[in-house]
Design a protein that fits this description.
Order of helices and strands: HHHHHHHHHHHEHHEEEHEHEH
Largest sheet: 6 strands, mixed
Shape: globular
Strand order of the largest sheet: 1-6-5-4-3-2
Oligomer: single chain
Length: about 375
């Protein structure tokens, strides 16, 4: 009887080996697992922080309401201050910092402003108490409501909110130049998730971050905007998405080139932007109308609204712009500032523009009423 060969033993050894496709447990899997667990922890912490923030904001509001119910400031200011000081000392001793005399008066002012608990519940899901503290010093209640809603929609952190207020964003919107009834209605739409062009567009745009000094061309301005696109997008506002530079439009035998093309997610519209180094001229309107009609015909997607044009120029005569009735043509004209004037000068200029626009709106309403 012959001796058995070693081949069967090799076959047994091969069969016993794990298949090549079997997954090996190694360091890579531990890294992936650790990453997943970290993500779960961070997500849970964010939810806890959001819930704690909402609860604390509600507490501040309830404390403010309770203080207002005592009517501490109505005809007995000295007595009210004494009561608040005593309450503040007791609460601070028992619960720690956060209940100082200043903090309690701030809570009372918060309750005076925020009278609708449903609005508070919505805002407190996004805004922290620190956000509300930044909003309280704003005297104009409509401006305060505007900043609160825009902060919620665009999810500004506290620093960004402070920057928007300091940069007088509200005063630079077309919305601020409307009658108060219109502003109030538009803020109501913001709460319902609807955003209008009057809320989106600004005048002037603050483009000092571009660093342009001395003489520069329109191409220089365009290149600087694209180079600093992150900061420019912050100035334009959340919702803007960059689409194209020097967008080519063929009309008949001629080619035209639009400086910048954006899309706005909230408005669901294409935004055509033309840059002008010179002052606004009525001839610019005809050029923009051509661009808007071409975009409406060739680039507008199903479900989108008609495109809007923005002419950014060095300066603009308000009477000329008003006479052209550009809103009906979906065209906006705004100035841009590559170097900021002193804040008092900018503030005075914006307030003058707002008063002028509101006077014009009131005159139009009066004329319309007379015609009827």
């Amino acid at each position: 009887m012959s001796k058995p060969t070693k081949a069967p033993a090799r076959r047994v050894a091969v069969a016993a080996a794990p298949p090549r496709s079997a997954k090996k447990v190694g360091p890579a899997d531990g890294t992936e697992l650790l990453g997943d667990l970290r993500a779960l922890v961070h997500a849970a912490r964010e939810r806890i922080a959001a819930a704690a923030n909402a609860a604390y904001t509600q507490l501040c509001w309830q404390v403010g309401r309770r203080l207002l119910a005592e009517n501490l400031q109505a005809g007995r200011a000295a007595y009210g201050k004494q009561i608040l000081a005593t309450v503040s000392q007791e609460l601070t001793a028992e619960f720690g910092a956060g209940f100082s005399y200043t903090a309690l008066t701030r809570m009372a002012r918060f309750a005076e402003w925020m009278t609708d608990e449903r609005i508070l519940a919505t805002l407190s899901q996004t805004l922290s108490w620190s956000h509300f503290v930044e909003l309280l010093p704003i005297k104009d209640p409509l401006a305060r409501d505007f900043y609160a809603e825009m902060c919620r929609i665009e999810r500004w952190d506290v620093r960004t909110l402070r920057s928007k207020i300091g940069g007088m964003l509200y005063q630079r919107t077309a919305l601020s130049k409307q009658p108060e009834s219109v502003i109030s209605a538009e803020i109501g739409k913001l709460r319902d998730g609807q955003m209008s062009p009057d809320t989106v567009f600004r005048d002037p745009y603050l483009l000092d971050l571009l660093g342009l000094k001395g003489a520069y061309s329109e191409r220089d301005l365009e290149s600087a905007i694209l180079r600093e696109i992150e900061g420019v997008m912050l100035e334009l506002g959340a919702g803007f998405t960059f689409v194209a530079r020097q967008k080519r439009m063929s009309v008949g035998k001629d080619d035209f080139y639009l400086d910048l093309l954006f899309f706005h997610r909230h408005l669901r519209r294409l935004i055509a932007v033309e840059l002008k180094l010179e002052s606004f001229a009525p001839a610019h309107v005809g050029q923009m109308e051509l661009y808007l009609r071409w975009l409406d015909k060739h680039e507008r997607a199903p479900g989108e609204e008609a495109p809007i044009g923005l002419i950014l120029c060095a300066s603009a005569d308000a009477e000329q712009v008003e006479l052209l009735q550009l809103d009906a043509k979906s065209i906006r004209v705004s100035e841009y500032l590559t170097a900021l004037p002193p804040l008092p000068l900018l503030r005075a200029r914006l307030h003058q523009a707002i008063e002028h626009a509101r006077e014009q709106a009131a005159r139009r309403l009066a004329d319309a009423g007379g015609e009827r």
